[in-house]
Amino acid sequence: MPSAVRFGVNYTPSEGWFHHWLDFDLDSVRADLDSIAALGLDHIRVFPLWPYFQPNRTLIRPRAIEQLVQLVDAAAERGLDVNVDGLQGHLSSFDYLPAWTRTWHRRNLFTDPDVLDGQAAYLRTLAAALADRPNFIGMTLGNEVNQFSAGPHPDPDRATSDEIDAWLARMLGACEQGAPGKLHLHAEYDATWYQDDMPFTQGQAARHGAVTAVHSWVFNGTAQRHGRTSVPTEHHAAYLVELSKAWADAPHRPVWLQEVGAPAPLIPAEHAAAFTEATIANALDCPDLWGITWWCSHDVSRDLADFPELEYGLGLLTNDRKPKDTARVLAEAAARARSHASAATSGPHTPAPRTTALTVPADPAVRSLCAPGGPVYDAFFRLTADGVRPTTVLDTRADDKDHLAARGITEVVSPEQVLPTPPGDTSS
């Protein structure tokens, strides 16, 4: 019997944001976790800040590791499982990289042998510290680390796709060494799916690690282009889930919607609950969904300066731990999933297969065709608006009957077959 979809939240501490690791207060953490558990969620994703935990390449602070374990144990007491991100990395517009990789010690994050040794040791240490905790889900290598590898980052650590492939294999191997058999993965922002020169590729996202992770943010041009209540905006998360499946080798590889949120002002506060409800419902219509982890748990305090305006109000809960309407929407969805899963007759709700597949180019050099405004993107949402429930398939697999059958696909269409001919184009 398939397991129920997981519902969780990315944990942003209500006091001190992620700087709370500098003044770790377990009582404050426990109060935060109480407010999360009260929503009926089953997991959190947590973010050690890499420079605070490994300030020198050969120093991984034991006290910081101990505090992470205390947080995971406190979560267990409240029935919450925990995924831990390692290489932080990038969070809410700020970069957190240790001094031994920057300026006078500038070394490439993805290719320098000493940096690779330090990263692997750090990830292995974090994983090993939690390996015996039954509520430890596993490691995510870091938060959207692909943003360091190309523009628009102002000082990127350039690497080839082959070098990224080797980096992913080594870092995931370090997590497995530390905590064998846990759910270890990597996660990038949507440039992996949309940006032609991004060295982190779609194939790597869909083949490395135990599950595929997607991060859905409609400030990427989707909400600007189409509006807050449009089909593309309300189905963007589902689109990324289904787009990722084209590159997976396993026909039913799980996909984790690991980050999704309601960013103001594109999604105004008074509309956030409706957006949340639509996004969750549409994502749940995707087969093989591992879980939905909302960004984020608590608002960023206005006492902290220089965040982009949208970051201050993304929490499901306020700084004084009061739930917003978005929290109630997520809580109700989680309760419905639990109810389905516990029903003796039906078991968890399983969406019907998506039988129509839209072809997408296998070549990562033209992945912008899948980005907002591209023909794949536009065709997917035209089909969605027509009630078709599309998925995607690589153009190189469009005639692979075994692959299509394994995924339940009975019809394959190209974007050209879906979209109208542009004015003045008389080609056949």
Could you list some keywords that capture this structure?
about 425 residues, alpha/beta, TIM Barrel, 2 domains, three-stranded parallel β-sheet, 13 strands, about 35% helix, GH, Glycosyl hydrolase
Describe the protein.
It comes from Streptomyces pseudovenezuelae. This is Glycosyl hydrolase. InterPro entries: GH. The chain folds into 2 domains: 337 residues, TIM Barrel; 63 residues, no CATH class. The strands form 3 sheets. It has an 8-stranded parallel beta sheet with strand order 7-6-3-2-1-10-9-8. A 3-stranded parallel beta sheet has the order 12-11-13. Strands 4-5 form a two-stranded antiparallel ribbon. The longest helix has 18 residues. The mean pLDDT is 96. Helix 4 runs parallel beside helix 5 and helix 10 packs parallel to helix 11. It is built from 14 helices and 13 strands. Strand 11, helix 12 and strand 12 form a beta-alpha-beta unit. With 428 residues, the protein is of the alpha/beta class.
